[in-house]
UniProtKB/TrEMBL annotation:
Record Pfam families: MtN3_slv (PF03083)
Gene Ontology CC entries for this record: endomembrane system; membrane
Species this protein is from: Dipteronia dyeriana
Subcellular location: Endomembrane system
UniProt lineage: Eukaryota, Viridiplantae, Streptophyta, Embryophyta, Tracheophyta
Main localization of the protein described in the UniProt heading: membrane
Listed name of the protein: Sugar transporter SWEET1
UniProt entry tagged with the keyword Transmembrane helix: yes
Zinc found in the keyword field: no
InterPro entries in the record: SWEET (IPR047664), SWEET_rpt (IPR004316)
Length: 110
């Protein structure tokens, strides 16, 4: 096998790994949105985390656009959109649910 073939195979392996990791990270954010909608409660979705997720996705989306790198701007563009949805859900369900928490998400083992 030549050096060029080995280099190409490594590049393909890295590309496949990048795509898999991007899909995994987007799915994690999507799961938290589904949990909030299902329970109609934002007790386990902190507002600071939602805001920081949105801001980081937005900043890396802009960076990816400036560098013209689709491996940066595509997943972060999707993350920015999901971050906006997350903030909208947070504002909707936090005003709807009121103040106190109903049930803990996890039972204490101690």
């Amino acid at each position: 096998m030549t050096y060029i073939q080995e280099s190409f195979e490594k590049q393909v392996d890295r590309t496949v790994l990048r795509i898999a990791l991007h899909i995994f990270s987007i799915e994690l954010l999507d799961l938290s949105l589904k949990l909030v909608i299902k329970s109609s409660n934002v007790e386990f979705m902190p507002s600071t985390l939602s805001l920081s997720t949105f801001l980081m996705s937005l900043s890396f989306f802009v960076y990816g656009m400036l560098k013209d790198d689709p491996f940066i701007y595509v997943p972060n563009g999707i993350g920015t959109i999901l971050g906006i949805v997350q903030l909208m859900l947070y504002s909707y369900y936090s005003s709807k649910s009121g103040g106190g928490s109903r049930e803990p998400l996890l039972d204490s083992c101690a």
